[in-house]
Amino acid sequence: MRFIGEKIDESIDQFLKPIEKYWQPADLLPDTTKETFIDEVKLLRESCRELSYDYIAVLIGDTITEEALPTYESWLMDMDGIEQGNPHGWTRWIRNWTAEENRHGDLLNKFLYLSGRVNMHAMEVSTQYLIADGFDIGTGRDPYRNFVYTSFQELATNVSHRRTATLAKQAGCNQLSKICGVIASDEMRHAKAYKAFVQQIFEVDTSEMMLAFEDMMRKKIVMPAHFLRETGVKIGETFSHFSDAAQRLGVYTTHDYIDIAESLLVDWQIDSITGLNDAGQRARDYLMALPTRLRRVAERTKIPALEYPFSWIA
Ligand SMILES: [Fe+2]
Ligand SMILES: [Fe+2]
Fold it and tell me: Catalytic: 66?
């Protein structure tokens, strides 16, 4: 961590945007100080009318996932090799990454509030529950496992925000499409950063990095909102309905999971990495065979057609 952390200032410049030059949620929402505010809100609400029930459910789930950022920041801050008292190095990366991410929940939340389609109280209850319940992503405090997780997760959020952007456009909701689009592009930059960290670890600690990658894929990458719940609903149950809605819409599917896993194999050139010990070789064999195996299983899995009445939707 110290070795990679030496180049962290470079990484911040390369993968994050300067605060003063970048968008803020207010830039993409009606301006409350303007006379035109009420009219803009009316238009916004009208543009949301055609969005389907599943779409609204998925957008709310995505928003709550973003709003649970305190969980993610505190989790990363607890990784081995992070010294919170030292404002430089890794601490600086995590804080700057968090600061960029923080805008995602803010922006989506405000949009949903204005949309008129959401029971905000119910949504806020779920957000508070999710932060209170935390998550368990199977990484422990190990940075190798955490960076596999974050590489995967940033790609997964890129896919889902990109798809909600496309669907919003098709429904004639251009403002929402733009919102989801700018968030998706943040996620892609973040994915590039975390993938670069893993790449650097592969160069200096090849076998251990391979074993960490294998371990995470064996456990399966759980989504950060896997503990999602509503009032009176058991932990995790709401998440599975949210995930079904995302599968039905094609916003994030089992096939996307497999494609992301496969793209990581390609990006990290897993097939041609040299210098592995025996355990590392076996881990590589497992990883290389994984996409084909998962695809066989995916072909047999059916997506539940049942729409579930979320308490979040007005
Ligand atoms: Fe995000
Ligand atoms: Fe992200």
Answer: yes
